[in-house]
Write a structure and sequence with these properties.
alpha/beta, five-stranded parallel β-sheet, 54% helix, disordered C terminus
Length: 383
């Protein structure tokens, strides 16, 4: 089991919601990119509490009902007589049970329920509206496909729009937490090790612990681990975004590669792609939450005079080094690809250092002393 760090604010909020649900039903939505630590947070929160954690398997409705019935019996001693083959019936039984029993029910990968039963969200709307005033359930749903979870709960056309009572968007670890984790595993770490860890993970919990448990504590070992088989660093960039974007991802990936290479204005991207990419950029920003616009000071809203930035540090690394060198990975030329990363490391991490510095300032909510040494000297001396 992974060590658990930080998340004090989120656990405090979840605890307050649970207390509220003891007298009035609460419906909490938790989102966040894959590997960010949503499941670990919920497991930590659930320790010692009455509740049940249900995972949405991509199987038949009958099979999923059977899995959930067994889990509910084990966790809550909630025995439903007879075999239920409908998720609607199962959830209705849970809501009826919650009228006299206060507990937490967690459904993970909630968005996948639509694959099991296309009409379930409409049915859940009816269940929630019917039972919420009498129920004492602390109902938490969790999902890692940002675009789908946003659509389910924030699109006015969707049946569950307006039903959630609380939203939590789980973010990456702050710079201070990344530093603390590295220090705990390797008290003799260097500033270069810390920068490399941030470059590869951006504070995403799973990536950090993969490196730590592999004893990849130094810059050299981190890069060697990231670019080797069977490292998830080689495949997650594609897998995560395909789950968001779908199979028609070609142009989107080309755009992200160009941004990672330094082509950050739409004009630059259009000239390489050979067509207007405005709609693609807007989707990557507003729908998929992968990039964000950086506007010059005093520029007007809607102006094309913006620079685009990939939000996630790992995705920046993936589209700069992994995506354009798939041929090397196919042929197992990991040493050669590692050589390219080491060769271009200084140039690439110059931009990463800016992101690191920006996050550190946000966390500390103050501007550190400025020295003549410039941003790099200032940042690395302040870690």
């Amino acid at each position: 089991m992974e060590a658990f760090y930080d998340r004090k604010a989120e656990i405090k909020v979840l605890s307050e919601i649970e207390q509220q649900a003891s007298t009035s039903a609460c419906f909490t939505v938790i989102t966040g990119r894959r590997r960010i630590g949503k499941t670990e947070l919920l497991k930590k929160f659930g320790e010692g509490k009455k509740g049940s954690y249900l995972f949405t398997s991509r199987c038949s409705e009958k099979e999923l009902c059977s899995q959930w019935q067994q889990k509910l019996l084990l966790d809550l001693k909630f025995n439903i007589f007879g075999q239920i083959e409908s998720l609607y019936q199962l959830l209705e039984s849970i809501f009826i049970f919650s009228e006299k029993n206060h507990f937490t029910l967690i459904i993970d990968e909630f968005q996948d329920l639509e694959l099991v039963n296309k009409s379930l969200f409409s049915q859940m709307q009816n269940l929630w509206d019917t039972y919420k005033k009498k129920s004492r359930i602390n109902f938490i749903v969790c999902g890692s496909v940002f675009s789908m979870m946003t659509k389910i709960f924030k699109d006015e056309k969707e049946p569950l729009f307006g039903r959630a009572t609380h939203f939590i968007n789980l973010s990456h670890f702050k710079v201070s937490v990344v530093k603390k984790i590295l220090s705990d595993f390797n008290p003799r770490y260097t500033k270069e090790d810390l920068l490399c860890l941030y470059m590869l993970t951006g504070g995403v919990a799973k990536y950090i612990f993969l490196l730590m448990y592999a004893k990849a504590f130094t810059k050299k070992k981190m890069i060697e681990y990231a670019i080797s088989m069977p490292s998830p660093f080689l495949i997650d960039g594609k897998d995560i975004l395909v789950s968001e974007i779908g199979k028609d991802y070609g142009t989107y990936f080309s755009i992200l590669h160009l941004i990672a290479e330094g082509f950050t204005s739409q004009n630059e991207i259009d000239s390489v792609i050979g067509k207007n990419t405005g709609a693609y950029l807007q989707n990557l920003d507003k729908v998929f939450d992968v990039i964000k616009p950086i506007r010059p000071l005093f520029s007007k809203q809607g102006s094309r005079n913006v620079r685009w930035q990939i939000i996630d540090a790992y995705q920046r690394f993936y589209f700069r080094f992994i995506f354009p060198h798939q041929d090397m990975i196919e042929f197992g030329e990991y040493d050669s690809l590692q050589g390219i990363v080491f060769r271009d490391y200084e140039t690439f991490t110059g931009k990463t250092l800016e992101y690191f510095f920006s996050e550190k300032i946000k966390e500390e909510k103050k501007l550190p002393r400025l020295d003549r040494g410039g941003i790099k000297n200032l940042t690395m001396n302040s870690t």
